[in-house]
Amino acid sequence: MSIHNTSHTAGGTLGKPPESGSSPAKTHRQKVRVLKSLVENQGTAAHGEHQLLLKLVQAPQHISRLSKFPYLKDFEWFLSPNRQDLGRGDAMFVDKTGGKVLILELKTLHMGSSKTARTARNAARKKAKQQAAYYAAHYKRMHPQFQVFAGTCCEQLSVSLQKGDTYPQVSIL
Q1: Residue 90's domain spans which residues?
Q2: Which of 11-15, 58-62, 162-166 shows the highest mean pLDDT?
Q3: Where is this region: Disordered (predicted)?
């Protein structure tokens, strides 16, 4: 996973900044409940990025770069509520104060060994970096009061963490 410095409405806030009346921890708990429900209701058909995000929020202390941004603020959020054509970010995390925002772009990768699979993985990683930088820059323009970082998490998805599994890697751009 990479992090760089710089909704589908299940996420709910459509790219709005953290609200002053709601603590980051409270918002995090609400978003995690929605995410868990979404993944559980979809069962095996659950979107791979939702499953990957659930892995991230269930064990942030094991992911060193994510430990600075422990709270999920939103997921599947639109860059602009009135301009859905601008795109939809995968995940938004905030620090304990709510003043620093991490825009995280998620990609699940096919781990085949063929040349086509390797090429597709490299293209997905490159696209994730471009999207994360774009979403972070756009969010910063909309909300200049926040310190905004961009990041990626591109991983093969295993549905649950088993003993010996590694945690997803987060990269900050």
Answers
A1: 2-172
A2: 58-62
A3: 1-30
